[in-house]
Amino acid sequence: MDLQEFKSKNPEFVKKARECKDTFEFTKLLNLYKIKLGADAFDKAYALFCQPDNGNANGELSDEMLENAAGGIRTFDAQEINIGGGGPTTVIKL
Description:
The structure is a single chain. This protein has 94 residues and is an alpha+beta fold. It is 49% helix and 14% strand. It has helices spanning 3-9, 11-18, 23-32, 42-49, 63-75, and strands at residues 35-37, 77-81, 89-93.
């Protein structure tokens, strides 16, 4: 699943991520939604979903962020796997 598909399937997560004030809140949100990040992906995901100065007021990425992420969007990989404990877990690799 690519970034656009992830955002369209998880609009509630994306909305709540924009409201996170710090990495602690983002970590709690990831745990709540059973989202696991691949190695070295936390900072990238935090910047992509949470930091408002990297995007516009309406939640879209700025032109600069789009240029920086252009290669990364192709490698954005979100998969749902069942690792037990009440439903699927989403694993994101950036």
